[in-house]
Amino acid sequence: MTKSKSPRGALWSFEVLSFVLRHYFPPRVDLALFDSRLISRTLARAFIVKSVLFVCTGNICRSPIAEGLFRRMLGNRKDIEVASAGVHAVRGQPPSLYATQVCEDEGVDISQLRSQPLTATLVDRATHIFAMTGAHLETIHMLFPHGAEKSFLLREFEEPDTTVWRDVPDPIGLGREVYELCAQTIKNALPSVLAFVEQSELAPTWRAGGASSYLMSDLSHPIQTEPGGSTSSAGPGGGLRCVDPEIFDAIAAEEKRQRENIELIAS
Predict the structure, then answer these.
(1) Active-site annotation holder among 72, 166, 167, 170
(2) What's the number of domains the chain is made of?
(3) What is the pTM of this model?
(4) Residues in the chain with pLDDT < 70?
(5) What is the pLDDT of residue 225?
(6) Which of 62, 114, 155, 241 is catalytic?
(7) Strands 2-3 and 113-114
(8) Which residue of 12, 98, 257, 260 is most buried, as measured by CB atoms within 10 A?
(9) Catalytic: which of 45, 56, 155, 242?
């Protein structure tokens, strides 16, 4: 899910900005002309190591509950980011009333989250995708085959003797007690999810928002989904376009402007 309100954090210090910009952007681009908030946001993403995506049907019940509870587990950690989406979601819907209430019972506020459909960009960005049911997992494999290797069932990593039925049933349209059971089921699964995410190795060609995504040489080349393999659906433009298209466009526009100035002077 996306947040309807996402307040900006404090801007990076001048020293940190200067260091990173010198290493990740070419001197021919005048970054001082860019919005400092865009630069701050993109640099923050450069230090995110892993990106977790929870997936259900409409992104208004199960996956936002998982997103909210997982955020609470992460606390102030900056090395893992979390989001959620739905395979049949309508963009911009708030979580269901009971989903919001059962999370409030856990001290978690998900009222500002908004639904979003599962897209190639979200799949490309994620390092770990957790589906609520086998049907969701099959849909991910069918629509986004390049994401199959990093997609799992939410309850896949629970102790083998705890459950036979691995799906998280959909509580939509049912009573609050069903939502409470759903939230408890998700809550019970999350420690094993976090343990798996922490111990798993990432493919060398993708780090969620990692520094390699910000090399300017990536701007003219597509992202490789696996060593020697096919390219991702992000297409030409590389990691920066996929992770932060807004700042990619700003850099491209500034480079174009400076090229035009040089051509004008030369003429």
Answers:
(1) 170
(2) 2
(3) 0.63
(4) 3-48, 160-164, 202-248, 251, 254-255, 258, 261-263, 266-267
(5) 36
(6) 62
(7) antiparallel
(8) 98
(9) 56
Catalytic residue status for 170: yes
Looking up residue 139, the CATH number of its domain turns out to be 3.40.50.2300
- Together in a domain, 64 and 189: yes
Residues 184 and 62 in one domain: yes
Task: Kindly give the pairing relationship between strand 80-86 and strand 50-56.
Answer: parallel
What three-state secondary structure class fits 175? coil
Query: Any catalytic annotation for residue 62?
Result: yes
Same domain? For 81 and 163 the reply is yes
Angle at 125 between CA 157 and CA 74, to 5 degrees: 50
If asked whether residues 190 and 223 sit together in one domain, one would say no
- Domain of residue 259 covers 29-47+209-267
pLDDT of residue 200: 82
